[in-house]
């Protein structure tokens, strides 16, 4: 039951974040502003999310984690409800910033609780399912929210998310332990985690891995319609199919984390690089191009569980005071990667056109390949040093 509520929490957060994609036009019409102006809400959300998550995580570390999670969930509920009731665009921006400010810390605490209550051998599967909650929100929550917005108004879409939030809050209050193992420390000691090469290499890997994904996915609609020639009527089904591949990708990620994890990631990135550089050559062949995009969707989330477990394991072994911060690193730098990838893809469209957009993403994937090789080497050196130290004593 705890596993289900963890996934439900991720689904709730995913719906709140992604639903904006499908209702931008409705909001623009409501407040009489341009679509481009409303589109900035996505950038604002990602930026506030990435900046606020480490700050809130660090400064709430000394408080009871159960109580902290309950407070953050209440703030999220207030922010999401305020979004639904916003009387003007300015208040809508403020409400989105409130929800973004706490969303990252909520999922970080959920990851911390998950790692505490799950047996070691069950952790990879549980973490992969938590990440799947976001994919499920993208596949099912966004189209349902869009349909609600179209039929009954965009405000009702966010009110539905508030209902889910109340349900999730109640289940978390009922099921979670009031106390879990917790080490409190100063700001400096918490941030000492970031000096570890295994963590530094890991966060750079996450950043460029996300940038590689959003270096082409930002323009997935024109890739499918303008370039591959699929009709607008088939777009929802194609996006649904790509979303399903993303869910499968998170499950594959869990399996990979149980069998070597990061050791196998260089092969994944070599395949991703090859597909990204091949993609422009397949755009005049609809089926082949779609197959390339489907395979890319299958492998782009594979890093999630191995890197999340890596950060947690490093913190548990050497930086127990930084557990929650370690839990948040993946989501923080993934959002920075989204910003980098989407900005680069926009530049690529202006300079080289949509059909060549994946070349920029391929460069990011190449950097990610270098970083995962460096990370594996850093892990190996640490393991060798630990074995030498054990022999000496």
TrEMBL record:
<keyword id="KW-0813">Transport</keyword>
<feature type="transmembrane region" description="Helical">
    <location>
        <begin position="357"/>
        <end position="379"/>
    </location>
</feature>
<protein>
    <submittedName>
        <fullName>Arabinose efflux permease</fullName>
    </submittedName>
</protein>
<dbReference type="GO" id="GO:0005886">
    <property type="term" value="C:plasma membrane"/>
</dbReference>
<dbReference type="InterPro" id="IPR050189">
    <property type="entry name" value="MFS_Efflux_Transporters"/>
</dbReference>
<keyword id="KW-0472">Membrane</keyword>
<keyword id="KW-1133">Transmembrane helix</keyword>
<feature type="transmembrane region" description="Helical">
    <location>
        <begin position="229"/>
        <end position="248"/>
    </location>
</feature>
<feature type="transmembrane region" description="Helical">
    <location>
        <begin position="31"/>
        <end position="56"/>
    </location>
</feature>
<dbReference type="InterPro" id="IPR011701">
    <property type="entry name" value="MFS"/>
</dbReference>
<feature type="transmembrane region" description="Helical">
    <location>
        <begin position="269"/>
        <end position="299"/>
    </location>
</feature>
<keyword id="KW-0812">Transmembrane</keyword>
<keyword id="KW-1003">Cell membrane</keyword>
<feature type="transmembrane region" description="Helical">
    <location>
        <begin position="126"/>
        <end position="151"/>
    </location>
</feature>
<feature type="transmembrane region" description="Helical">
    <location>
        <begin position="5"/>
        <end position="25"/>
    </location>
</feature>
<feature type="transmembrane region" description="Helical">
    <location>
        <begin position="157"/>
        <end position="176"/>
    </location>
</feature>
<feature type="transmembrane region" description="Helical">
    <location>
        <begin position="68"/>
        <end position="87"/>
    </location>
</feature>
<dbReference type="InterPro" id="IPR020846">
    <property type="entry name" value="MFS_dom"/>
</dbReference>
<feature type="transmembrane region" description="Helical">
    <location>
        <begin position="93"/>
        <end position="114"/>
    </location>
</feature>
<feature type="transmembrane region" description="Helical">
    <location>
        <begin position="197"/>
        <end position="217"/>
    </location>
</feature>
<feature type="domain" description="Major facilitator superfamily (MFS) profile">
    <location>
        <begin position="2"/>
        <end position="380"/>
    </location>
</feature>
<dbReference type="InterPro" id="IPR036259">
    <property type="entry name" value="MFS_trans_sf"/>
</dbReference>
<dbReference type="GO" id="GO:0022857">
    <property type="term" value="F:transmembrane transporter activity"/>
</dbReference>
<dbReference type="Pfam" id="PF07690">
    <property type="entry name" value="MFS_1"/>
</dbReference>
